[in-house]
Amino acid sequence: MKTTRREFIKNSILLGGSALLTPLSAHAKQEERWVPGYAKLEGEGKLAERVEQAYALFEQCQCCPRQCGVNRKKGERGFCRGRYKPMVYSAHPHFGEEVSLVGQGGSGTIFFSNCNLRCVFCQNWPISHEGKGKEMEDEGVADMMLDLQKTGCHNINLVTPTHVMPNILSATRIAFKKGLRIPLVYNTSGYERLEILKILDGIVDLYLPDMKYMDSEKAAQYSAGAANYPEVAKKAILEMHRQVGAHEVDKRGIALRGLMIRHLVMPNRVAGTEAFVKWVAEALPKSTYVNIMSQWRVEYKAFEHPEIARSITAQEFLEAMDGAEKAGLTNLDPHSVAMRSRYRRRL
Ligand code: SF4
To answer: From ligand 1's centre to the CA of 113, what distance in Å?
Structure first.
């Protein structure tokens, strides 16, 4: 769909006249110009095509690397148990996410039910494994987005979005038309197909992928046979970086765009932290935002696996942080840096 000049001017005005105003300072200029990716794409007349392209994937589901091939439109369900319509467990401002996502107003988190990775240690297992939640229309998800924006959230944080990506794109377009103007955060396990990420190119403002394991045996053992996770997630993260680049914030420190990688330290070096930080340092700029997380808890079926059935030790977390520093990473999440000081004091 092409955009007429009249529509372009109308969209510019709707976006706060960002394309028409002359900003005062370099910083103001950068922020004045900032509009979410989906708004630009809609302005170019491309968002509707992407929604259509994404929805076609449901007919022989190829939304994630499992590539089940089921027809979700006809009610068939694949590995993730996802349906044709999205299931949502909750939508609320979240104050426990990374500082630049939380700000003063919180991160507008929407938790989608079901999951395509299904780790044995999942902390949200009633939602991801058991599918607790309520079936919604895309219009309902759009209204949730708008409510979160109205509440003062700085972004829409889509938790476990992979298997409902078509619904999300459709909801985003509906919400944009009703006034959504805050960044979209794609909060994913990292188990993503490149073909799907290409559909998201220009729509997602912030990618927040996990990098869970560097070893395919561990990935298969703890994430339902996903032996290709390390290779798939590495390629996905490189593509995300190509699309959105480095983590960018506004003058208040609120994230607008970019890549933020999460890595949860696991007991007995199961997550392969040393290999992970080396890979980031070699494959991406050393200034890439990396959150080395200490929040490991023995949850769900982790109790059945002796290797991971305990908390992490102070030494394990400190080893992970020291490894990140040794690898030359310069943009570590402030929480992880604070946790390092706390763990050091404990020793
Ligand atoms: S999104 Fe679900 S149904 Fe589709 S390929 Fe992945 S696991 Fe299978």
So the answer is: 13
Q: Atom 1 in ligand 1: which residue has the minimum CA distance? A: 163
How would you classify the pairing of strands 248-249 and 255-264? antiparallel
* Best probe residue, ligand 1, of 55, 71, 80, 87 (max atoms within 8 Å of C-beta): 80
- Does residue 325 sit within a domain? yes
Tokens 């509707």 correspond to: 48
For ligand 1, atom 2, the nearest C-alpha belongs to: 80
> 326: domain range?
85-346
* 1 domain residue, yes or no: no
Which pair of structure tokens corresponds to residue 37?
A: 């990716």
Report the separation in Å between the CA atom of 252 and the middle of ligand 1, taken as the mean of its atom positions: 39
pLDDT tens track for 268-296:
999 999 999 999 999 999 999 999 999 99
Q: What sign for the dihedral angle of Cα 66, 67, 72, 76?
A: negative
Tell whether 129 is covered by a domain.
yes
Among 215, 333, 317, residue whose Cα is nearest residue 267: 317
Q: What residues contact 159, with CB distance under 8 A and at least 6 apart?
A: 109, 110, 111, 112, 187
Who lines ligand 1 at CB under 6 A? Answer: 61-64, 66-68, 70, 78-80, 82, 116, 163
Q: Domain tally for the chain?
A: 1
CATH number at residue 156: 3.20.20.70
What number is the average pLDDT over the span 251-258?
Answer: 97
Per-residue confidence (pLDDT) for residue 63, from 0 to 100: 98
